[in-house]
Amino acid sequence: MTEAQEQHLHEFSSRRTQLIAALPEALGGLDWSRKYSQLADDLVRWVYSQATTRTEAQPALAIVATGGYGRQELSPHSDLDLAVIPLHEQSPGLDALVRETYRLLHLALDRVFGAEVGYSYRLIGDAPSLDGKSRSGLLDARLVAGSMAPLEAFNQVFQETFPVGDFLLDKVTERRERMRRTHDTPLVVEPHLKEGAGGLRSYHTALWIRKVLKAEQPTGLEAYSQILRTRNLLHYVSEKQVDLLSRSRQAQIAEVLGVELAPWLSGVAEHLVILTEAYEDAERLILQASYPISRGVVTKDGTVHFEAGATPSDAAIGISLASGLGLVIEREPLDLSDELDGGEVLHALSSGETTLRSLDRCGLLATILPELSRCRTLMPEDATHTYTVFEHTMRALRNVESFAEGSFLGDLRSGISSPDVLVLAILLHDSGKGVDGRPHSEVGAEIADAVCRRWGLSDSVREPVRWLVAEHLSMARFIRMRDIQNPGTADEFAKMVKDRERLDMLTVLTAADIMAVSSAAWTQSQESLLRELWERTAAILEADIPPEHDPAIYRRRLHRALAKDQEVSEEALQAFLDSLPAHYVLSTPPQVVKLHFGFCARARNGKPTIEVAHQPGAGNTEITVCCPDRPGLLSRLLGVLYAWDLTVESIRVSTSLGAQNIALDSFVVSFHGQPLPSATCQHATSDLLKVIEERATVEDILIRHGKDPSRRQSHFRSAYVAGTPGILEVQAPRGRGMAFRLARFIAEQGWDVCSARIGQWAGQGTAAFYVTGPQGEALDPAEVAQAMQSSRT
């Protein structure tokens, strides 16, 4: 800069210093802030005059103050927001003038004010597509330097295209969120003077709402001036931009003003109350005024109406906005056109349950999505569901919205890049239940495909929606019926979902769907299993190289991890690891292997071990049994658990092969959805030990508890997934004895059980047994089918 320019900047800095020094004596915040804003105006005008002398062309350009600077309400360390608006984008010399203006403004404002400067470059054609924050700032715009013509032209388009309903909802939502983050009452000891209830933003929002609704300005200007004064003083004592009036800053301000702290702070609270009331009055005005909500939708005295010829998508968008604002939506005759924009409809539906309820109430849902509306009174086929298909769907959508930020499910939901896909899949996931004779997920996928085509949605929406509806039961089936710790389970699931986005959406949909069945449908154990399956699958999908599940590699890793322990014989450890089945070494951590090594050593000496670990976080108890193995042992142990009315959630069976077979079985059980009570646990483990040591028979224990030990499992459906091990999936009438009876039947066939998942779903008991032949070989699917058929007769 030249010497003359440096002198000008020094003069501006001196003026600022004088204004800051006079601040404690200023009685009103508005008066001082306007003088301070006038200083910024003078500096910007001087800078612009310097820029125009450096460029040849003089295109029509407006330098506009926006936001707090536009309102002339700057505090000592406020940011300065400026917008540059050209009249014609292609004007000769425009680029050079803008660059020079930006350069000099940055140097000058930083030198004099030392504050952040927010620049925006606005074309007149940008006016219809601005976001809510930009619109708020431009509602307070005023010309500081340059030509008025660009600002007038911009304002004309800005006002003509202003989306009233969208803006009002954005401001109300923003205000509530900011108060949630700070404080939602003005009666706090340490108020946030900008964003908290009764802070400056409360009054700003009231101003914006009333301006958009063409209503009179809010009351409370004197209270606003006093809160602005308090903020100015807060900046003064802090020497930086601060908006939280902490106790330490309160004492500093009281000392500067020479007043008693408590009465002064009570006065601040009184002003905050007045500004809170000003905002609340503006919110009430939204519910009482008449104005256009969106294209084709208006509100008159707080009640929503559709204009003749509005499209269904226009109406849906309007209802979405009206629902968020809390306007009254009633059923009225619909005179809508046939034109429908599927993208807009999907955007409206994605705003949540409240919008769906409103669309249903006014009769519009039956027009745009009759597939869902037809399910209103459709009853579910099983007795576990509390609601009709329609209401169940609404509850599932509510559940998605309720997942808290920072929670596993909440973070998954927030990270989904296409939330509208998830919403449409939820709305249609049970739509196939109205068709008999075919799986409802299969029918629902066809319905979803038809809806997407009717709405003209792209393949990037249609394909994942169809897939989610088709597979919406798959993840629930995996966590109910598969061994999640078996590496093959996540491998199989990863091949099905194919990518992380689908995995995240299916996980959220699965949880929301199960929760909507009934108040007791979702358990801590299910959430734990769901998360574990997600984590294992996500790791596979995100790995550069697919994980290798070679038991020999895992045995070597376990050996290296445990061989350092001086208490463990290296030779005995190697023999133990070599004797264990593949599924055990692939899924058991080293510290657990070491524990089991000790259990097996005791068992070889004829001393059985029964270890109990309560898991309150998962709502269950894990019972580990280690003892010499004998044919039918698993079914006898399950018989004891059945006798005590324990719910078996999963079983892991690992027989150590060697000179003496040792059974190492783990049972995850619960008692009415909770870990076992101490007395029940003590009695059940005592009976387990008696059966192991042959001091009692399982038949005697079952009879003592009123159970029929000879009852067969004759009513069930089964499917077999071939492999080593194969997976025998069974559905049967619900009852705690199913696991015992099926394990007994499997033992009678000479098959070995590696692990099992036991549960209940849709009024049925479900189970998946991982089975092999007696020497660990794969079973013949035809033989399995024949055996299962013979058991029914």
Describe the structure in brief.
This protein has 793 residues and is of the alpha+beta class.
Overview of this protein structure:
The protein has 793 residues and is of the alpha+beta class. 54% of the residues lie in helices and 13% in strands. The protein has 34 helices and 15 strands. The strands form three sheets. The protein has an eight-stranded antiparallel sheet. A four-stranded mixed sheet has the order 3-2-1-4, with helices on both faces. A three-stranded antiparallel sheet has the order 5-6-7. A hairpin with a 2-residue loop joins strand 14 (752-761) and strand 15 (764-772). It is elongated and about 100 Å long. The model has no long low-confidence stretch (mean pLDDT 90).
Structural class: alpha+beta
Q: Quote the beta fraction.
A: 5-15%
| Helix percent band | 40-55%
**Given the C-alpha coordinates, what overall shape results?**
elongated
- Radius of gyration, taken over Cα atoms and rounded to an integer in Å: 36 Å
What oligomerization state is this entry in?
Answer: single chain
Number of helices: 34
How is the biggest beta sheet arranged? 8 strands, antiparallel
Which regions are unreliable across 5 or more consecutive residues at pLDDT < 50? none
Mean pLDDT: 90
Going across the major beta sheet, what is the strand order?
Answer: 8-9-11-10-14-15-13-12
The N- to C-terminal Cα distance equals: 100 Å
Number of strands: 15
Task: Supply the key terms.
8-stranded antiparallel β-sheet, 4-stranded mixed β-sheet, alpha+beta, 793 residues, 34 helices
